[in-house]
């Protein structure tokens, strides 16, 4: 019996080592460079019909998160004082409802502190927080991050508050269209959040 237990332990340890080595060798396969992000801006508007589906809202949120993180990692990798950095910073501002420097710099500082130069967003799910005055929209997501050599470093489970605001008249193709903005990268009280599509 002891021998079977020893063999089982050896196999388990070897399996953990193989999985660990495979995870360390994981590389970022996406496309994120100054060339690919130069057209990232927050000019897309969405009609109420497009926002009718929970899956569509999750997809839009995932796309916007990926775009702003791609801009953020390129900005974090720069000197933060060149014309290119200024352009990237201005593009990042377009994704925030109130683009104040404190909100944006805390977003950039986290990428810097993690030494994240590439980010992959996945597992996005949206929810609503209903208070006496407002209904607030939040998204939970997984952020895998990689170093400048595209090697996997780790992941964080994160949450962001976002808002859909009516687009300015000059940006609308139809009568009623909305734009997507991030409010802040932190979430609601856990006990009061309600998944979209459900009522309290």
What does this structure look like?
This protein is of the alpha+beta class. The chain has one domain (29-195). Helix content is 38%, strand content 25%. It has helices at residues 2-25, 34-37, 54-77, 83-93, 101-114, and strands spanning 118-130, 135-146, 152-166, 178-184, 193-195. It has a 5-stranded antiparallel sheet. Helix 3 runs antiparallel to helix 4 and helix 3 (54-77) crosses helix 5 (101-114). The longest helix has 24 residues, at 2-25. It is globular and about 75 Å long.
Give me a quick take on this structure.
Helices cover 38% and strands 25% of the residues. The protein has helices at 2-25, 34-37, 54-77, 83-93, 101-114, and strands at residues 118-130, 135-146, 152-166, 178-184, 193-195. It has a five-stranded antiparallel β-sheet.
Helix coverage percent of residues? Answer: 25-40%
Radius of gyration: 20 Å
pLDDT averaged residue by residue: 82
Ranges where pLDDT stays below 50 over 5 or more residues in a row are 191-200
Order of helices and strands: HHHHHEEEEE
**How large is the count of helical segments?**
5
User: Major sheet: order of its strands?
Assistant: 4-3-2-1-5
Distance between the termini: 55 Å
**How does the helix and strand content classify structurally?**
alpha+beta
Query: Largest sheet at a glance?
Result: 5 strands, antiparallel
Number of domains: 1
Count all strands and give the number: 5
* Global geometry: globular
Q: Beta-strand percentage?
A: 25-35%
């Amino acid at each position: 019996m002891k021998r079977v237990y020893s063999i089982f332990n050896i196999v388990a340890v070897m399996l953990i080592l193989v999985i660990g080595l495979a995870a360390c060798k994981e590389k970022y396969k996406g496309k994120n460079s100054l060339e690919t992000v130069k057209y990232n801006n927050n000019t897309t508007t969405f009609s109420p019909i497009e926002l009718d589906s929970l899956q569509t809202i999750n997809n839009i949120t995932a796309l916007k998160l990926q775009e702003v993180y791609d801009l953020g990692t390129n900005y974090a990798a720069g000197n933060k004082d060149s014309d290119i950095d200024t352009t990237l910073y201005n593009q990042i501002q377009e994704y925030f409802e109130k683009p104040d420097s404190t909100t944006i710099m805390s977003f950039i500082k986290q990428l810097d502190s993690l030494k994240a130069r590439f980010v992959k967003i996945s597992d996005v799910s949206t929810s609503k927080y209903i208070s006496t005055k407002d209904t607030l929209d939040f998204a939970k997501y997984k952020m895998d991050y990689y170093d400048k050599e595209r090697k996997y470093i780790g992941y964080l489970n994160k949450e962001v508050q976002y808002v859909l605001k009516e687009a300015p008249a000059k940006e609308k193709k139809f009568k009623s269209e909305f734009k997507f903005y991030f409010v802040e990268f932190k979430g609601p009280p856990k006990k009061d959040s309600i998944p979209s599509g459900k009522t309290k």
